[in-house]
Input
Amino acid sequence: MFFSCEKITIGNNTNIHSGNSFIGNSNFRIGKDLRIINNHHFDLCKDINIGDRTWIPGNGSQFWTHGSLDAN
Output
């Protein structure tokens, strides 16, 4: 697991499994009772907020906060 961001907030009873990366210059907020399974990538060019009681299952998903549809 690798974190490199401006600020991170993690709620109670949250489980983050191995191999996940959270990289960027913005904020990352994770709610309570949340689970993130293995090897996901979170691009933090802009803030990401994940609500309570959310699961990110599977393996190897990518979450991007910038790209071809974001001209800013």
Q: What stands out?
A: The chain has a mean pLDDT of 90. The longest strand covers residues 7-10. The chain has no helices and ten strands. The beta strands are 2-4, 7-10, 15-16, 21-24, 27-30, 35-36, 41-44, 48-50, 55-56, 62-63.
